[in-house]
Specification:
- With 175 residues, this protein is an alpha+beta fold.
- Helices cover 30% and strands 19% of the residues.
- Strands 2-1-3-4-5 form a five-stranded mixed sheet.
- Strand 3, helix 5 and strand 4 form a beta-alpha-beta unit.
- The longest helix is centred in the N-terminal third of the chain and has 13 residues.
- The radius of gyration is 15 Å and the shape is globular.
């Protein structure tokens, strides 16, 4: 059976995720514009710095920091941000693009909701991306219209956003 375009791109994002260097999360992102992949990114430490694999531990795990909080303590750059950064390095515009995100738990390999965090959402909005297609823990995907985030945040506070990364991973065995 031939996969839909959305599933095809999510499958590619899943493969990109395998390059990640985070113990907690494997996530991959690709940005597509005019049916062409223009950038990819995975969770990993900034270029030329030591990642968690090289250090042999996750600082956030050592400090027992729950998923979805205190991103400033993490050594890694999120997959979405890396895809946006990589497009900038190649001088490629993201205006009107679609971002695909696949995510799985780094310890169990189980699928998790690949929803972007608040920091990534702000970058996605400013990059001019129109839609974000995220894998879900149920095995399907959810499509977000970036314009809806903008409209929602104009009416409510950013903290009222109900689709947030990490909430499905904060069980005791994942901390």
């Amino acid at each position: 059976m031939r996969p839909s375009k959305d599933q095809y791109y999510l499958n590619i994002a899943k493969e990109v995720a395998q390059r990640g260097t985070c113990f907690r999360l494997r996530a991959g992102a690709i940005i597509v514009k005019d049916d062409q992949i223009i950038a990819t990114g995975y969770v990993g430490a900034p270029r030329k710095t030591k990642d968690c694999f090289e250090r042999g531990y996750c600082l956030r795990d050592e400090l027992k920091i729950p998923h979805g909080t205190q991103y400033e303590i993490c050594r890694s750059v999120h997959a979405e941000m890396n895809a946006i950064i990589n497009s900038a390095r190649a001088a490629v515009s993201l205006l009107g693009g679609r971002l695909y995100i696949y995510a799985e738990n780094g310890k169990t390999n189980e699928r998790v909701d690949g929803f972007p965090c608040y920091l990534c959402k702000k970058n996605i909005i400013n990059a001019g991306i129109n839609e974000v297609i995220c894998s879900t823990k149920e095995g399907d995907f959810k499509i977000f219209k970036v314009e809806d985030w903008v409209n929602e945040w104009a009416q409510k506070d950013i903290l009222d956003d109900k689709y947030k990364y990490g909430t499905d991973q904060n069980s005791k065995e994942n901390l």
